[in-house]
């Protein structure tokens, strides 16, 4: 209906010849666009649920996009995938560069797919926003896993804040789970806050270590040890076997100095050689033991609920920010205030007052 | 005036005997409270500007308070202190536990006060929010500096997010500068994100290291090295002297592999023994050289402006959050949505939608 016909006055005369609403050019265009949009999201959702890796990749790219249009579609995507999600085991893996994360994840992933599981590997990489480096960037480091039909590997998105990467990874988990992946591995490098982020979205947190010369505890952040559900000492091969065993003993002793976790689990220490595929099945077994134990005692579900509460707050906060910065009036005033700071005509505190009073 | 008299109807009869407005009990009470509040902020500002350490301490405590009333007063405090601030040199110092930060800061602080400067020492300690540990908590570790009339030491505030600690520290810098401190030292421990925070609020960023056995570069985060304006190898005494010199050479070589900084400064490496008070004046000299060089080339002011822009965004974002969470309607709905998550009746994404649509 045209705008004129919306007049509800009793004096309003009905038009003799009315153009059918469905033929209105703008309305038809709108409908067409809506259909197109709906189709594309629907198609992606269908693809994902049927385990189509290309659809999954495209959907994650959509989540990572900063374009307003894509963000709307991403929201719809998540909404449709949510009923199919939440059933996988989420495993966080951290360790400094050189510890052999790629080799470990490849062997661990293969051990899972060989026992009939489906594995997705994601990454949280805050360093990529600064140095533009990227973990998992070089898929050739996981040659066999990349070729595995039951594995999906996604390099980390770059050029964003840690908070942004966290949101995108949480949403990517949902999509991977909807695509039927039973195990989601989230890789991160040992640079402080990123471990906390990965810990906040996983069921099991694994710290990968090397046996070094001397004091095994030097250089490890207390916070990361406190978060770890297991410490696995990699490269326990050749001449390293003895040192790895010693490191295992030392870590074990150290772990017993920490207060017990509220879920009753004592962090385990294991050794392995990802290179020689030694000790990997033991890691798998430990994790599945952990999951069944936690599920039986109700801790698994409890932790998930705590994580969901945390996600709620994080989601609200990130949307508060993006709504603010996308507001056109604010955008204009922010530009003006930044210029005033540049000219030394205001302070950050005064400028913030002006901006917030505009809301 | 009483509420009754506010009736503006023409039929309203004026009371024969009117109590003078100034004698109204509630108005008098309000005025008294206002006077009290105003006095107390004014008193604090006066105290701070006159260099009164007790007033400065009380003001920082006010900044750290989460009570709505104190936050209002804190805002007024900052506003009044700002014209007296911005004139100090701000130095960030980081290093892992055991590197000798306290001893170094004590000797460095004393070297500054002995040359007529005034030194304030603050701390950014994100670990305190988790483990309730605290750097600078034990003032006895800086016995001489504590007794120094021209030094002010403030332990880190605990029980807050890194973002909250950052805001409080930025505001504490303003207050210390208004109190006439010429050098503000911000201490932090090497746990990732906190360095970035300290780097974002200082003019000079110093990484304190130890000479270890073996590879000097192991275990150091690339990001922190990139941020450092100088690496100082501490404990270069006794049998350690040789190892320290070797470490200095290795760091120097490594630093030259990094791309040059935009301000033209090449990060320096020095050795010192804080314990024996060796090499400390060299550190002071290097920093004052840096400052004059940067001021001459205009980089100093440019960096401050960039930092102020960053502070503006940080201030806006933290206020957006606190305004949201302090809104009583939101508070109630948030509680409800969290209960729904607990009962598995909603997802974090849906709950966030509900909350944000209420704004």
TrEMBL record, chains A, B:
Superkingdom of source: Bacteria
Transmembrane segments: none
SUPFAM superfamilies, per database record: P-loop containing nucleoside triphosphate hydrolases
Lineage of the organism: Bacteria, Pseudomonadati, Bacteroidota, Flavobacteriia, Flavobacteriales
InterPro entries: GTPase_ArgK, P-loop_NTPase
Family note: Belongs to the SIMIBI class G3E GTPase family. ArgK/MeaB subfamily.
Record's protein name: ATPase/protein kinase
Pfam families: MeaB
Segments for region (Disordered): 1-36
Gene Ontology CC annotation, any one: cytoplasm
Origin species: Patiriisocius marinistellae
Keywords: Kinase, Transferase
MF-aspect GO terms: GTP binding; GTPase activity; kinase activity
